[in-house]
């Protein structure tokens, strides 16, 4: 299952309204509007992976939310961050300056954001669909080329595909959970709701359930034994 721009924005609105209604976020989202589909972030295999949506209130950006495009994730809402601001244009400008410092002769006709080692991000430069360079976001270090997977070597800084490394049974399980969650926001009275405005009154007529869990799981490489 893959969500289009409209679907991502709608799901983001519902999920963020639910969290705001439950008052579990460190910052209130009251008055935030979810209308901009944000920045599309790709897997390194070229498939759309998620969208980073800016959280704006009265023309002020207060943070961003990461919302899954693909059912590789079990839940559509992946993260909400209030500590950093997301400015796509500014990030691309910095990436271009960094690339020029590395290689003044580099030529490209396309730039895009990629999760080169999810959740680590990079800016990928392409020419005629082929990669010219990939620079890690903020550090602007060159991401090394893909290499053969084995059990030796330094796995701290490498690129790998979240999609291609997921086992088939995991893909089926996450796909089912993702579709179930998306379908939940498209049933009964919810189908008629406009969730673009984040407000505690938006979901008042609806029975909202928020499940609390406590789990921390970080994966920066295909081999999980190191983490």
Please provide a written account of the structure:
With 227 residues, the chain is an alpha+beta fold. It has a domain at 5-85 and 162-226. 24% of the residues lie in helices and 23% in strands. A seven-stranded mixed beta sheet has the order 4-3-2-1-5-6-7, sandwiched between helices. Strand 6 (120-127) and strand 7 form a beta hairpin. It starts with a helix and ends in a 43-residue tail after the last helix.
Properties at a glance:
about 230 residues; alpha+beta; seven-stranded mixed sheet; about 25% strand; globular
Brief summary of the model shown:
The chain has 227 residues and is an alpha+beta fold. The protein is built from four helices and seven strands, in the order H-E-E-E-E-H-E-E-E-H-H. The chain is globular.
| Topology as a string of helices (H) and strands (E) | HEEEEHEEEHH
User: How many extended strands?
Assistant: 7
Largest sheet features: 7 strands, mixed
Distance between the termini: 29 Å
Oligomer: single chain
Q: Which segments are poorly predicted (pLDDT under 50) over 5 or more consecutive residues?
A: none
Shape: globular
* Portion in beta strands: 15-25%
CA-atom Rg in angstroms: 19 Å
Mean pLDDT: 86
Q: What would you call the structural class?
A: alpha+beta
